[in-house]
User: What shape does this take?
Amino acid sequence: SCPIVALVGRPNVGKSTLFNRITKSRNALVDPTPGVTRDRQYERVVWNNRAMILVDTGGIDDNPEDVLVPHIRDQALAAIEEADIVLFLMDGREGLTPADYEVVDILRRAKKPVYHVINKIDGPEKELELLCPFYELGVETLWSLSADHTFGFNTLMDALSETI
Ligand code: GDP
Ligand code: MG
Assistant: This one.
């Protein structure tokens, strides 16, 4: 059967950009405004002869003023629930945020295999510096990525396709 891979993280970290890059589509709406993806979005992907179902989500926010937040969050929680593997995206330019820690808590409880992906590492120049704050998470492997510029993309996808 086809493993389900969910893209999870707070809004604006680049989940939809990565979804579109992996699926070679423009189906997921990429927008600088957080909270544009409201429902889950599915597409089948084949990489190195391995098939998976990729799911984009609206993100897990901690902004209580936005009335849509509970719905978007429920969609993200449902995606985690049904996922076999989670790609947890964070923003290398912004560093670790309280909303990232909320996702960490949710994922810890979900007990799913997680790839910790640090996006917006747009090249090797500042990679080590930008990754530094994320070692606080205490995870063994951080995956550097630029969903926009393809840096780190093949490495991540090859590893992912080997584990499914
Ligand atoms: P989502 O809310 O997590 O789905 O994030 P989006 O995919 O909509 O992206 C949010 C913003 O971040 C957009 O303006 C993207 O163009 C930008 N973005 C996404 N990936 C990258 C990246 O690798 N590098 C840079 N510099 N910007 C990115
Ligand atoms: Mg999105």
Summary: The chain has one domain: 4-163.
